[in-house]
Amino acid sequence: MSLGGWLFSNRRFESIRSFGVAFLITLLCFPSYPARGQDGGSDQERHSAGQAALDRGDLNEAARQWMLGLIDAQRSGAPDRLASSQLDLATIYTIRWQFPEASAALESARAMLSASSGEAEFRADFVRAGFEAATSDSAAAARDLQDAIGLAKTGMALGDDHPKTAVLYSLLGLVELQFEQYSKSNEDLRRALGIFTETYGPEHIETVVARDRYAGLLFAEGHYGEALQQAGRAADTARKLGAAARAVLGDALLTEGRINLAANRFAAAASNLQESLTVTRAVFGDNPRTVPALTALAELSLKEGDIGGSSQVIKRAMDLYNGDSVPNWLPAVEILRVSAEIAGRNQRPQDSGSLIAEALRIATARLGSGSLMAARVIETRGNLTLDAGGVDRAEADFKQAMDIRQRLLTSGHPDVAKGLTEIALVSAKRGLPSIAVDSLYKEAISNITAEHADDPLSLIATLQAYSSFLRLQKRDQEAEELDKRVREANAPGH
Prior knowledge:
Layout: E1 5-6, E2 16-21, E3 27-28, H1 42-55, H2 59-76, H3 79-95, H4 99-111, H5 118-134, H6 138-153, H7 163-178, H8 182-200, H9 205-220, H10 224-241, H11 246-262, H12 266-284, H13 291-303, H14 307-320, H15 330-345, H16 349-367, H17 372-387, H18 391-408, H19 414-429, H20 434-451, H21 460-472, H22 476-489
Antiparallel strand pairs: 1-3
């Protein structure tokens, strides 16, 4: 039986740009383990039928079988069987992002697990961690995953190279990515991907899930070219796997779309994101699982100057987001941030300010005021302020965002380079000599080139920003040289 990989989006969630975000979050569901003395009754048969349906991508049938399994378990009155059935339901509810229902099922399972076996407790920790990751409670998810890893190694005598342990490391790596702990995430995701590749081969759903998560990490670290390659490979393999991997395909396409969006490759981003939305809807319908793709599409429309189209798309995302059921949900930061940009473009500064304030509140509550996600919101606030003519306040926001990124990222990261270009823009508005402004753009390009010599995708947005400045200065020949580099970076093979 497959361990069953199902990916929630958050790749960066700012790293997610995540999510990314862009950051999703995945729940991988284990088969349940009957406690000693169980007779393998009909609730266990229902569990197996539901797991088989889940493995082939039929979520409705999985939910139906597991609901019937709960009814059978209730007739038996056995606490472990009741707990196992509730964990089944918590799994399917979490996959569908039906968070209130998942929370209730987890609480019911917790109340029945006092006399459970180590394996049952192991599964409970894992399912609970998946729910916590999906609802942006990264700290609790990490604790439960560490507990599950401890049970796997001691109570279940599984080694570090066992596939079940690898599933835990894979989800832990995604949680660490959400928590902006990139070094730890890199270690755990590489470990999981290596184990799955060696155990199952490259065309197994667990390997595909781990590869897409690793692509999200590479994106967060600024390695756009390698990230796009890994996400594309995950998407191609998911297509080969068919219906069982549709959810994974949707998430891999979302990762590709976010990378292309960050690199200003708008046509490729639109194709990726539209397909991701179509696939995700086919699996889950119109529910919060589509929010990350909708938000990214709204940002794409905004970058292309289609304010009306962006407004329509972000409204769909906002309608699906229920802040009461999931307080301080990290995907909401991106919804609110993009909504603030739209409000600013529509000359509604009061609405824009309120949306930015709420986005920053959630980012700070979840990840802290010095987080990369907070920096992204502060940067957006700076751009909105600059558009309204507030040069001094915009410069303060750009420098605050830059300080955060310089503490947490390398000097050659595209987001650090973006910070330099924004400070250059403020300097130009202040009337500083061109040579001083040029030096900031050139520093940004030099830093990225030094760190990503073989990755031209990471450089595209910075080259375009400098080219725009040069054209405003009527330095068209210099701008054309930069545009040529952009065309080369966008050529087939990159």
